[in-house]
């Protein structure tokens, strides 16, 4: 896609041939999504995540239409806003989706400035996460529970406990 600007204004959006560099046709609009951290599993792992998604949909009693839409998007490797919240579906157990802490070296020293403030912020963030989840489920959306996406406060304390 080629964007032609006039100052800060997009003048035209064109699809072009990267070999010849010639414009093929003009588009009326384009939707640009932010970069994504999602890497779709290879073909050898597709049956695993498909089975896991079907099992999860039944277990969480997702609306069949919502589950089918999610399945189709993931199956066709279509990135969509919020796809990061589906990452655990693409890498089912026994694979583990890693957290920030998994990337830290073993001898790292972590400092928690204002522990009371951090705790208050954690409680506020967790409340917002659960409220958003409850609102989404009330609308019938196919969503994973927060516990499958985020470290809760107890898991975070357990992760940080052995650190100096």
TrEMBL record:
Keyword annotations: ATP-binding, Nucleotide-binding
Residues in UvrB interaction domain copies: 1-36
Highest taxon above the source species: Bacteria
Name of the protein: UvrB interaction domain-containing protein
Bilayer-spanning residue ranges: none
InterPro entries, per the entry: P-loop_NTPase (IPR027417), UvrB_inter (IPR041471)
Organism from which the protein derives: Desulfolithobacter dissulfuricans
Single GO MF annotation: ATP binding
């Amino acid at each position: 896609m080629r964007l032609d600007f006039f100052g800060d204004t997009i003048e035209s959006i064109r699809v072009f041939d990267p070999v010849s560099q010639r414009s093929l046709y003009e588009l009326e609009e384009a939707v640009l999504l932010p970069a994504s951290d999602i890497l779709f599993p290879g073909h050898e792992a597709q049956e695993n995540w498909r089975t896991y998604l079907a099992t999860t949909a039944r277990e969480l009693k997702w609306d069949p239409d919502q589950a089918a839409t999610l399945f189709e998007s993931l199956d066709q490797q279509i990135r969509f806003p919020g796809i990061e919240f589906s990452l655990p579906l693409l890498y089912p157990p026994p694979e583990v989706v890693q957290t920030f802490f998994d990337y830290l070296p073993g001898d790292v020293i972590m400092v928690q400035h204002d522990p009371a403030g951090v705790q208050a912020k954690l409680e506020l963030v967790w409340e917002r996460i659960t409220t958003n989840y409850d609102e989404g489920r009330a609308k019938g959306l196919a969503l994973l529970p927060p516990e499958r996406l985020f470290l809760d406060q107890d898991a975070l304390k357990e992760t940080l406990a052995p650190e100096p």
